[in-house]
Amino acid sequence: MSLRVSLVSADAEVWTGEASLVVAKTVEGEIGFMQGHEPVLAILAQGEVRITRTDGSKILANAEDGFLSMANDELTIVAGNAALVS
Fold first, then answer.
1. What is the DSSP string of 15-81?
2. pLDDT digits (tens, 9 = 90+) for 1-19
């Protein structure tokens, strides 16, 4: 099973897809999300968002100024500024 993940910035969708693991930085510290995680609403801190896709490949993005919401195996990360790292 997997998470449905959406990473969006103020002006564009940065990445959407299925993932087995997502690690993001919040003002409380780093937090990891997998399928079945309890509901969470947190303030996003400046830092990396690390996404492990279901095929094992990894995606790295920088994000800041926003929030994340996890419920029912759907993780939404809304950032004022976010971009994939190439």
1. EEEEEEEEEEEETTEEEEE-TTPPPEEEEEEEEEEEEEETTS-EEEEEEEEEEEEEETTEEEEEEEE
2. 799 999 999 999 999 999 9
20-66 residue pLDDT tens: 999 999 999 999 999 999 999 999 999 999 999 999 999 999 999 99
Nearest to 72 by CA among 20, 37, 31: 37
Compute the distance between CA of residue 19 and CA of residue 66 in angstroms, rounded to an integer: 21
- The CATH fold assigned to 3-84 is ATP Synthase; domain 1 (2.60.15)
